[in-house]
Amino acid sequence: IPLIIGVTGGIASGKSTVARAFARHGIPWVDADDVAREVVEPGEPALAAIAERYGERVLQPDGRLDRRALREIVFADAEERRWLEGVTHPRIRERLTERLAAFRDGDAPYALLVSPLLFESGQHALVDRTLVIDVPEALQIRRTASRDDVDEAQAQAIVAAQMPRRERLARADDVLDNDTDEAGLAERVADLDRRYRALAGLPPER
Ligand code: ATP
C-alpha cells in the first residue's frame, strides 16, 4: 500500500462510523484506542510497570487494569500523567508502526489509522495524509449526550477540554463534514475513496 490516511476528530465526531463506511469499500483500519488497550493487557510490560508504581489499587481482582482507578490518579496529577504516557506511548507507537507496516505490505488500495489524538500524540507522523471528521459543536454535543448517557453540560466540558475545532481543521489535509445523515456520509466517503484510490495510483473501484 502506498498510502496511509490518519483519521481524527473530536468526541462523537463520527470516526468509528466513518471507518466502517470505508470498510465497505474494502479499506482496512487500525484504531489507536484499541492498541492503547492492548498494551496494558495482562502480561504486557506496560501493565507490570503500572502495577509496580501504583500497586493493587489499579488492578481488578482478575489482574486486569482498573482503568477508572488509574484515570483518577493521573487526572489529579500532571506528573503522574506524564509518567504514564512515557510508559504507554512508545509501546502504542511501536505497535501502530507494526500494523501500518503490515498494511503497507498488504494489497488493499490504502489503509486508515483512526486516532482521537492523532495530532496531540504525534501519530500524524506515521501517516501520509490526514482526514479530519468535522461536525458543528452543537451536533457533536448532542451526539455525545445521546450515545454516552451524559448530559449536555458534561458533553460540553469534554469538548472544551479537547483540541479546538479550528486548530484541528487548520492541520487537516482533508475534511469530511459529518453534519449529515448516514446516507450523506456514505456518499462523502465514496467520494473520498475515489480520491484516495487515485492518489494511491489505482483505478476507481469497479
Ligand atoms: P469517539 O471517539 O467518541 O468514540 P467517534 O468519533 O468514533 O466517537 P462515532 O461513535 O462514530 O464517533 O459516532 C458518534 C455517534 O454519532 C454515534 O452514536 C453514531 O451512530 C452517530 N453518528 C455518527 N455519524 C452520524 C451520521 N452521519 N448520521 C447519524 N448519526 C451519526
Automatic annotation (TrEMBL):
<feature type="binding site">
    <location>
        <begin position="12"/>
        <end position="17"/>
    </location>
    <ligand>
        <name>ATP</name>
    </ligand>
</feature>
<keyword id="KW-0547">Nucleotide-binding</keyword>
<keyword id="KW-0173">Coenzyme A biosynthesis</keyword>
<protein>
    <recommendedName>
        <fullName>Dephospho-CoA kinase</fullName>
        <ecNumber>2.7.1.24</ecNumber>
    </recommendedName>
</protein>
<dbReference type="Pfam" id="PF01121">
    <property type="entry name" value="CoaE"/>
</dbReference>
<comment type="pathway">
    <text>Cofactor biosynthesis; coenzyme A biosynthesis; CoA from (R)-pantothenate: step 5/5.</text>
</comment>
<comment type="function">
    <text>Catalyzes the phosphorylation of the 3'-hydroxyl group of dephosphocoenzyme A to form coenzyme A.</text>
</comment>
<keyword id="KW-0067">ATP-binding</keyword>
<dbReference type="GO" id="GO:0005524">
    <property type="term" value="F:ATP binding"/>
</dbReference>
<comment type="similarity">
    <text>Belongs to the CoaE family.</text>
</comment>
<dbReference type="InterPro" id="IPR027417">
    <property type="entry name" value="P-loop_NTPase"/>
</dbReference>
<dbReference type="GO" id="GO:0015937">
    <property type="term" value="P:coenzyme A biosynthetic process"/>
</dbReference>
<keyword id="KW-0963">Cytoplasm</keyword>
<keyword id="KW-0808">Transferase</keyword>
<dbReference type="InterPro" id="IPR001977">
    <property type="entry name" value="Depp_CoAkinase"/>
</dbReference>
<dbReference type="GO" id="GO:0004140">
    <property type="term" value="F:dephospho-CoA kinase activity"/>
</dbReference>
<keyword id="KW-0418">Kinase</keyword>
<dbReference type="GO" id="GO:0005737">
    <property type="term" value="C:cytoplasm"/>
</dbReference>
